[in-house]
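Can't paste images in this forum, so I'm doing it all in text. The chain is below; anyone willing to post the predicted structure tokens underneath?
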Amino acid sequence: AKMEITMLKHQESASRTKIWVTAVLCMLPNMSFGAMLAFIAVALPYYTTVNNASGIYMDDEMSSWFVSLNQPIRMSGTLAATYLNDKLGRKKSIFLSSMVMICGGVMAYFANSYAMLMLGSQLAGFGSGLVVTPTYSLLNDVSIIKLRGTLGSLNTLTVNSGYLYGLVLGIFISVAYLPLIMIAPALLFLAFYWLLPESPVWLASKGNTEEATNVLQNLRGSRYNVDPEVKEILGVVTENQDTQKKSVLCKEFLKPALIIIILFFFQAAAGADTICYFSMVIFKDQEIDESLMALLFQVMITAGYMISPYIMSRINRRPQFITAVLCHSVGMAVLGGSHFLPEHPVKAYLPMICLGVTGLCYGLGVGPVPFVLMSEMFGVKYKSEGMAIGMAARCLVAFSQLKVFVNLRTIIGVDGIFLIHSILNVLAAIFVFLVLPETRNKSMSELEDIWKSGSEIIQTKKKALSEHTQNNNDESKSDLEA
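Text version of the structure:
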């Protein structure tokens, strides 16, 4: 607790301007990621219409692959990012992911066949998988403790903002031009790439202590004393380097990995993905236009994401997620059971109201909290692998539910699907209440200690105290000799 209070108080004098500049730059590729998801949702009804202007027609089987295949492809990008994030660094990895997304968008724009359209959209999907791990890692590494949750939440918000950006423009612009809209934020990132700093944690892990110190000083401001932060970073990095990297079956990796996998399973199965990808189909026969319903859902998610950083800075992760997911469950339950309600003039607008509630609750906690936890729960030694396995789990769950949606709708109907989502949301709340540890306002070393046993923590502290005593003795000896 002493380290937590000391570091929190020490960082109050740090400048935040360049941290925010870094955050904005990191978020631009994620905006292209979100716009790519919007392209798939908007293009789906277009390409399933016979004799559309593109000359590309998709039947049910082709359209199900068009929507769902992006998930495992994105997962492969996330797994590749595990290696690139540590080998190339955060900065170069983000650059590479942006280039891949741009190439995919250009290919989709020039597509004149189903195969070429799939190739372009999946290449962009691979790029979006590459970008997740390095952006969250960099934001976590450059942030002060107080801003860590806020920046992680805003990074997730940017994906949704990109989706909203693509969805809105998709109403007014032909589907043929949407791939170019999709890559515009990534192109803007490349223009200002030179302003992006490298992670001081990554630099320190590669032995570039001087450069890591300079980067941190530049981020925090010239008047800020970076020595305590540099010392903590070096302590964590040195400890990880001194300790031989264990297998992924060790508790330092396995415990947080299992929690993150289950948490992302519940997030992916909450129901937001189903609505995002199939809203144009689900609400086609409603009183209100399906495009407006899709737009409402994204607007409310975005509103929730805009509010969630404020909430994250003031309350713990656990109550934020539990409250949001239970309210989300209520919205899904009403969506699934609205047909059983007696006829009433308000009933026609009930789906719109529930859609707004579920979207808002997703943005307030169901969406952002797991992503923030993903960047906080793994130590430096396992951060890349942990974030990759979390995103891989989410992609697999999303792929499965999107692929079976058409068949499942035939068997139990859309109402049944919404009720299943509602039940899973309740189970998510129970899981978080019983299992999830709290990570808010913890320093880097304290986050490392969450998964260690008491004896390991005591041993680490004894080693640090011994080194500190030895340094003091050496200094005293030098003073006496002088």
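The CA atoms of residues 373 and 439 lie 7 Å apart. The chain is about 80% helix and 0% strand.
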